[in-house]
Amino acid sequence: MSKIDRYNEIILQELKRNGRIPNKELADRVGLSPSACLRRVAELEKSGVISGYRATINNDMLGKGFLAYVGIVLKEHSIKTQHAFEETIRSISEVTECHNVTGNFEYLLRVETKDLKAFKEFHTEVLGTVPVISNPITHVVLNSAKDERS
Fold first, then answer.
1. What percent of the chain has pLDDT above 90?
2. Is position 57 within any domain?
């Protein structure tokens, strides 16, 4: 793993904001020469600290403006049930994140649909048909003060 010093922290912050920033501009912001900056980025990539680059998608433009988080309670607490749930959830396109969590439910899902009507249909026709789910608990996102994926 690369040593995370002050320069590498700034590099990571800048790349997180804009993964397509030109090396010269990145070097200027970090306070390094372009060659030193490029070496550091390559080292961060090689060591796995930077695991990839991605595009940020405007879901509103794609007709997916509705966002909800759904807490999932499973009918039974077993590895077999967890694996069955996880396998099922991987194939559901509306679920963009699935996290095994502690607290009042076992999983937290990020669900993106076109609108409330589409979410209701998803909730009934998709989640409602997963046999290992006992009690989905939905939290509709009204506004996001901070979302680093956007």
1. 83
2. no
